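Here's a chain:
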Amino acid sequence: MPSEKINEVFGQINPDLAEELQWNWEIWARDDQLPPASIDKIWRSWVFLGGRGAGKTRAGAEWVRQLALGKGIYEGKPCSPIALVGETLHDARAVMVEGQSGILNCHPPCERPVWEPSLRKLTWPNGSIAQIFSADDPNSLRGPQFAAAWCDELCKWHDGGQAWNMLQFGLRLGQNPQALVTTTPLSIPLLENLLADPATVTTHATTYDNQDNLAAGFLSYVLETYGNTRLGRQELKGEILKEDKNALWSLKQIDLLRVHKQPDFSRLIISVDPAVTSKKHSDKTGIIVAALGIDQCAYILADETVEQCHPTQWAEKLVHLYEYWKADCIICETNQGGDLIKSLLHQINPDLAVKNRHASQSKRLRAEPVAALYEQGKIFHCGVFEALETEMSSFTLGRNSIKSPDRLDALVWAVHELKLAHNCNPRVRKLN
């Protein structure tokens, strides 16, 4: 509901009701900010993964409020004591307790707990208590016992595994001790193991989901600066970016080779790694648009890969892309389909320039010199191609986690044609 409409509604209702509604979190919260109902699953850990400013802290503070006062899904069953674990004591106090979205500020005055900083303790009017702890001091979690815990920014904890383990030994009060983890995710074993636990439930939110509560200047700046980067995917979209240390490419490396202005170029091609069937479990047809810049660097312009598509359909798409980009030629791997593919394309457009390429080497051997060109800073991505870059960052020298890297195969063929075949057309062209 637009804010103007909300103000209009509140102006027409009883002031006492308006105040009650103002502090009713279940009315204002997004679904991802509310605790999973126990009726769906008896959970031990609720992991809220979110981008910066996605509303994770408010969700955590409101959950603690529901626990301590016996509200929401805990109606009539207050929960105490509660552990509040931050990266440091300063973080726990400044963010979780005293912060703008922290525990003190999410309570109406009549329900607000008493905060005793020297004791690191909150005490509610009904007697429920919560105490702050530092993940930097795991031993401080030895001894105390809890009915619930809120752990903030778990992925930043320096000795996260030890602190988390000590907390688990202390979660032993009540019928179903529970923990909420609010964090911007990182690909670390602690988080991955937690997410794999059958007793864990997960919700997810991005920075964009909470844009109505964020400064417009902040949002426009971070979107412009980080929106199309690996850091943006992690910090704004709240994605867990997994990488294989043995992969030929890393997402960090690709980010450093990302540009947003298409260059003048001397040659443009479309490369295709075709699937010859359109069955449900058939491979994708990898289609990459790439250009050779006048600086002699290669630029990846588009990933037009298609799935479960009949050969005539992807052939028609190739012809459309050829004409749209005014390409010099189409590079086509012919290990599957042979001359049939070239014939299929010429049935649609007899004037199409098509070069057949037969793979006599393994995917790994073809990919290695291309990866070397990336390391030398001679290949750039004009934009973000998430699916392609995921394949690249998963492709290793050994056994690969992806069955058939079709997008990557098409990219490798394109780079071989532009940079490794040494056949450059000297014409200078501009992309519109």
Notes: The chain has two domains: 32-225, 251-420.
